[in-house]
Amino acid sequence: MDLMNKSDYFYNLPEELIAQHPVEPRDASRLMRLDRQTGEVSHHHFRDLTELLRPGDLLVVNDSRVLPARIYGFKEDTGANMEFLLLEQKEQNRWEVMVKPGRRAKVGTRFVFGDGLLRATVLEVLDGGNRLVEFECEENIFTVLDRIGQMPLPPYITEKLQDKERYQTVYSHELGSAAAPTAGLHFTKELMQKLNDMGVKIVPVTLHVGLGTFRPVKEESILDHKMHSEHYHLRQETADLINETKKNGGRVIAVGTTSCRTLESVATFCGEIKEAEGWTNIFIYPSYEFKVLDGLITNFHLPESTLIMLVSAFAGYEHTMNAYKIAVAEKYRFFSFGDAMLIL
Predict the structure, then answer these.
(1) 197 vs 58, 170, 177, 187, CA distance in Å?
(2) How would you classify the pairing of strands 252-255 and 58-62?
(3) What residues contact residue 224 under an 8 Å CB cut-off, 6+ apart?
(4) Domains plus CATH for the chain?
(5) What does the alpha-carbon distance between residue 4 and residue 220 come to, in Å, rounded to a whole number?
(6) HSE of 226 in the Cβ direction (CA atoms, 13 Å)?
(7) How far is 186 from 73, CA to CA, in rounded Å?
(8) What is the pLDDT at residue 2?
(9) What CA–CA distance (Å, rounded) separates 219 from 226?
(10) pTM of the complete model beyond 0.85
(11) HSE-up of 289 (CA within 13 Å, CB side)?
């Protein structure tokens, strides 16, 4: 079985299991523990990490913060409604944006947002239909976005989010993501303190999550899928702690596929874990040999997605698909606001 077909990663998911809102408190979500050696599954809550981890373990979290990047405004000359989704900052106030409806955003067209707090001019139509735009505002653009922007929730979440902070991790720090690193949404400050007190260290990396993370795999052969690029930064202090943990026989556990991709990218590009910054389009699927990871905390991902392929590479294909089957039968909550899985 070569596992190179998209359809190998399909599973049936009843729509009612797609979580539409987060649970309260954050660490009350359920946690499936999957043994990657035996495939054995046990059922817990996220707060039980204090019993499932051990002193000397190192959790690597992604401290990227989601931009409230969806803004609503109107065309300056006609008043026609417009929606922008800011994707990537190219220069100070120049951004690549996704626009709806596209036909209204010709080069030179001007738009107004937030009662005039923010204005935009279309500079260029990019390949694929996105626009390069120049924003004008009196304050810092991030301050303005914080005031007028909405969270760019994934397409499968149809309910409105009451509290914007619930789509941020409690340790989010570096602004720049178009989607949350969702495995980290389950942590509370109290749980992090308890883990720290028992000798589990927590260190950050930064990977700014792009909307490409939701892009479906369209090609039947996964080898034909073009992976999106995302910007990462691994700092020297984090590198030192990872290397020290390895040397002392502790386990390096990535919180989320984004932390995993950062660690494995640096190890692949540099041949070791050290301070590094750059862009990665690493695509991890079965047959990939992990260079850093001893464990992974992750949510339950979409059928046929690159993320379930990554999990299958780490936990083993059959173990992964069986765990997902159990999760459906046990009515775990799926996707961004859903439950989590600890793979060790």
Answers:
(1) 13, 18, 30, 15
(2) parallel
(3) none
(4) 6-66+163-343 (3.40.1780.10), 70-148 (2.40.10.240)
(5) 8
(6) 0
(7) 33
(8) 85
(9) 9
(10) yes
(11) 1
Q: What is the mean pLDDT of the chain?
A: 95
Whether 205 contacts 95, CB under 8 Å: no
Distance CA 114, CA 178 (A): 20
| 3-state DSSP assignment of residue 303 | coil
Tokens of 249: 């026989």
Closest CA to 246 of 60, 100, 22: 60
Q: What is the pLDDT of residue 214?
A: 72
Residue 37's contacts (CB-CB under 8 Å, 6 or more residues apart) are none
Residue recorded with tokens 């020297």? 236
For residues 283 and 194, is the Cβ–Cβ distance under 8 A?
A: no
Do the beta carbons of residue 317 and residue 286 sit within 8 Å?
Answer: yes
3-state secondary structure of 94: strand
Q: 176-213 as b/e, with b when 16 or more CB fall inside 10 Å?
A: bbbbbbbbbbbbeeebbeebeeeebbbbbbbbbbbbbb
Q: What is the pLDDT of residues 212-227, one digit of tens each?
A: 777 789 999 999 998 9
Residue from 33, 79, 339 nearest 186 by CA: 339
Q: Tell me which residue of 192, 183, 137, 219 sits closest to 300, measured CA to CA.
A: 183
As a whole number, mean pLDDT of residues 333-342 equals: 98
To which H or E segment does residue 136 belong?
A: strand 131-136
Amino acid at 217: V
For 329, phi then psi, to 5°, come to -60, -35
State how far the Cα of 158 lies from the Cα of 20, in Å rounded to an integer.
Answer: 7
Residues 6+ apart with CB under 8 A from 223: 4
**Is the model's pLDDT at 1 over the cut of 80?**
no
DSSP letter string, 32-60: EEE-TTT--EEEEEGGGHHHHS-TT-EEE
Alpha helices in 122-247 (DSSP H): 141-148, 189-197, 236-247
- Please state, in angstroms and rounded to a whole number, the distance separating the CA atoms of residues 112 and 300: 39
